[in-house]
Amino acid sequence: MDGVLVLQRSSWRIIHRELGTDNEDSFTAYMKGEIDDREFMRRDIGKWLSVNPGLDRSWMMNVYAGVERTPGLKEVFSELRRSGIDIVIISGGMDLLANELSRETVACPSLANGVEFDERGRPTGEGILRVPLRDKGSVLRDHVERGGYDGPVITVGDSIVDLTMFDISDLSIAFRPEAPSVSSGADISIREPDLRPVLNVIFSFLGKDFQ
To answer: What's the topology of domain 11-206?
Structure first.
C-alpha cells in the first residue's frame, strides 16, 4: 500500500510529519532486531500522544483523507477486478488508510496494522499487529492458502520489507523501488509514479491484452 497505492512511503510517518515527530530511531532499532513489531508501534503511538494528547481516530482519518493517491489507482483496481483477478492489500502500514482505499476502489480485502482505540476512539497506546514487517511473505502465504487460490500470485511493492512476498510470487513487480535491492529482488521494476504500467505488465504476464 504505502508507496504503491499512495505516493507517500509510510502511512505511519504521515502522522509523524503532521505532528512534527519522527520514528527514525525506532525504525533503526527494529531493523536491527532490537525491538519487535509491537514495540515499534507502541513507540510511534507514544510519540504522537506526547505532542497531541487529544489525538483520536477521527483526527487520523482526516489526515489520511488528504493523502495523495497514486495516479491510475481506481482504474487499475477496476480493470483487475473486471478481469476476475483477486486483489488483497497486505501492508505494514495503517489499517485506517488501507480500509479507506478498499472502500474507494473495489472493496478488496485488506490486511494491515493499526492503532488500538478505546470506546471513545482514543488510542490506548497499543498497536494492532496483523502484518509483521520482516515477514510479510507469511501473511501472503496464509491468505493464499486460506482462500484456496490455485492461480499465479503477483505482488507489487516498493521497499525491502516486500522482498519476502516477492520470494513466493510467480511475478514480482518493484514499483518506485526505494533501494537497489528492491529492484534486484523483483522480476520487473517500474519507476514512474503511475500504476497503469503495472496493469500492462500483469496482463502481459497473464496473456491478456489491455487497451
So the answer is: Rossmann fold (3.40.50)
